[in-house]
What does this fold into?
Amino acid sequence: MYILGFSVLLTICVFIYWVLIPPIHRSLFLLICSLFFCMLISIPNTFYFLFNIVVVYIISIFINRWYKNKKLLIKLTLIWLIGNLCFLKCTNILFKTGFWMHLSPKIGFANIILPLGVSFIIFRLIHYIVEVYRGNITESSFVDFSLYILFFPTFLAGPIDRFPKFYPQTIAIKKAGIDVSEINYGLYRIIKGIIKKTFIADNIARLIIPVLQHPSSYSRTVILCSTYGLLIQVYMDFSGYTDVAIGIARLFGYKIMENFNKPFLLKNQVLFFRSWHISLYSWIRDYFFFPIFGYRASRIKLYLGGILTMVVFSLWHKISVVFLISGIVTGIGALNWQLFQEIRKRHPFIKALTTINYKYLDLFLWFLNFNSFSLILVLLFFGFNGTLPILKRIFVFYRS
It folds into this structure.
């Protein structure tokens, strides 16, 4: 019923967008649609987003035009945006533990809920203001800028597109007519995403979640298959949403970036995360790793930066001890691969040996990467207490 209602509303919006609205006002209409979508989720959160959008837009004008102390201004803006994100992500954890648990009802923080889409909104704002500071973005209209930040197909779960790619499309659409081939491709991606999410991911979840919640009741083979099934379920769920987002964007004439590129076929964690949630990984690389650790840092600093990049990537999803540990583990895994490549370059004998048997080494590395990420996902979903019985059931602690 929900899908049917959304489909009808989307069809009406697409018809008005291409047929009834003057081309010059298409971005304004799409912004209104995005605001309506935000308000359906939460009206207060929508005004919170709009406040940050206005602040960043005004600051970008100052940076672009006449403000002399741009460095101070960009620092204060980043402190504000990152501080907002950290506060919202950490508040519920902080005020549910220890002394703060008793204090929070008195000071009004007891029921703060993380706004849906806030991470993607703030990451886009950070990207925009940093690129304005670097001189890569000149001024744009407030409507076009706001549309980029609140674009409703990518509002909740990305991908995190870049303004220099998004804005030229906005300008071109104001002069273009409807392209039937783009509409057909958009519908294809939407249907593909719905099949992935509804028919594959949801059904897999219904099968494997009870198994992984009560591992002692099932055989080792069933538990192992359910562990792999969790990885497939997460991929189908997230990539299905991405397909729908890309498809809806195409209906309005926008080509947004892909978020997945066959990650399960890759043999190491560096390549894996470059192909899994591509927009988030590239954002963290461009706005965390390179600015802080740079291209010419010492080897030790680069190694540390690689691990911290994966920690930030993991904690972005959820701030908890489990996600912190998963970030460290994946960072160390990526570091091990980097060290292995450096050893191969320095020692011709090892390079020759691994080259001769590379097809077998590739198979082993793929198997190791696939299984390690499967176990990390189990840890993320079920925590330490839930993961230990699963590991016991898979390995030697129990007999099938």
User: Anything to note?
Assistant: Confidence is low (pLDDT under 50) at residues 98-111. The chain is about 75% helix and 0% strand.
